[in-house]
Please model this.
Amino acid sequence: MHTALTTIAAVGPYGHGGPPFFLFPAFFLLVILATAVVFGALRRGGWRARSDARAVLADRFARGDIDADEYRSRLAELSRK
Model:
């Protein structure tokens, strides 16, 4: 009985071991990094801007503001970016 109390006093009521200390900060750093990447991609919205530009270009072509050659050249320029 005496050794059990000594062991509990030395290691606490949770026993021996557990995950290494560095896993907790590493986990939270990973969560923060993943959140930053997701919000950065959403905030930048690069794919949305290209899609909107193509829609505006198609609308201008449909209204007759630009001809087919200009439409194709501008569409090619958007595809390169």
User: Anything to note?
Assistant: The chain has a mean pLDDT of 77.
